[in-house]
Known about the structure:
Elements: H1 2-30, E1 56-64, E2 70-78, E3 85-91, H2 101-111, E4 115-119, H3 137-152, E5 157-167, H4 169-180, E6 186-190, H5 195-201, H6 210-230, H7 249-258, H8 281-285, E7 298-304, H9 310-319, E8 325-330, H10 337-340, H11 347-357
Parallel strand pairs: 3-4, 3-5, 5-6, 6-7, 7-8
Antiparallel strand pairs: 1-2, 2-4
Helix pairs in contact: 3-4
Amino acid sequence: MKMIIQMATALSVAASTTNIEAQKMNNRNTDMSLAPVEQLTLTQDWDKVFPKSDKVDHKKVTLVNRYGITLAADMYTPKGATGKLPAIAMSGPFGAVKEQSSGLYAQQLAECGFLTIAFDPSFTGESGGMPRRVASPDINTEDFSAAVDFLSVQPNVDPERIGILGVCGFGGFAINAAANDTRIKATVTSTMYDMCRVTANGYYDANDNADFRYNYKVKMNNQRTEDYRAGKYTRGGGVVDPLPADAPEFVKQYHDYYKTPRGYHERSGNSTDGWNVSSYLPFINFTLLDRAGEIRSAVMVLHGEKAHSLYFGKEAFEKLQGDNKELLIVSDATHCDLYDQMDKIPFDQISTFFNRWMPEN
Length: 361
């Protein structure tokens, strides 16, 4: 009888231990604080709209933002580089993909000695997230911080020397990220837009009134109903094609980039069918630059003298405080010139700015 009791006790302890281990395993499996990396299908062929440099190494990487969305990125590393490098994360323009302008910036700055990544924002390009082609001022700002997360733990990156660069609409998101993320040591915006301002007010604030915003919200909310009924999202269309005869000059410039071999890419919304129509709804009530004056890290606002969007850059710069802020106006440059025109983009000055404010200890 005593042996039977001892065996039963041993079995009970073993069962209890097994249950505890099983519970621990279950807790690990259900701990949503660490989002799993989605297995994305990434193109391994060189499909950029710019030629590949023989001065840098290139590979695809993935990272996860705090919303659990897996982002796809191109990493560029200077050939033969050793030790811990300064790093820069970049994205944009708004509606573009990493194979376009941001990738060009990333590759060129890697030639200057930085480890760089150009990422596709959430829901776009090769990045994850459903539904596709959704824009969000909050999530797209977070995408920059997720890139900083990733860079901070790379063995060949100095976590105290990380910067970001945003092109066009992602310039506004970059400033917003810099206002929130104290790990960012330097920020560059190139040919920036404030997407919340232009959505809510129209160009040059021409529609800055409650009636315009109300009617715009009615239109998009009605579209939400129709989309839900249809079980799919309606796309707003990318850059207009063919161009109407009375198209504004800046629309012609967009067309020349996105709709021609110069910048066309099949995964780019601007090159193809655009964002989901209802994507613009949150931009009306969200503001990007309210805390710009509290940014203590370095910021360069880079813009073209002839850019239709110059007023965004100038007024963003006016909000910035401190002696580590710089406004650089490129003479005779339009908005889209700073997407890819190598004789207009001041890479030497951009590199000098990052090196100055992300110095080696």
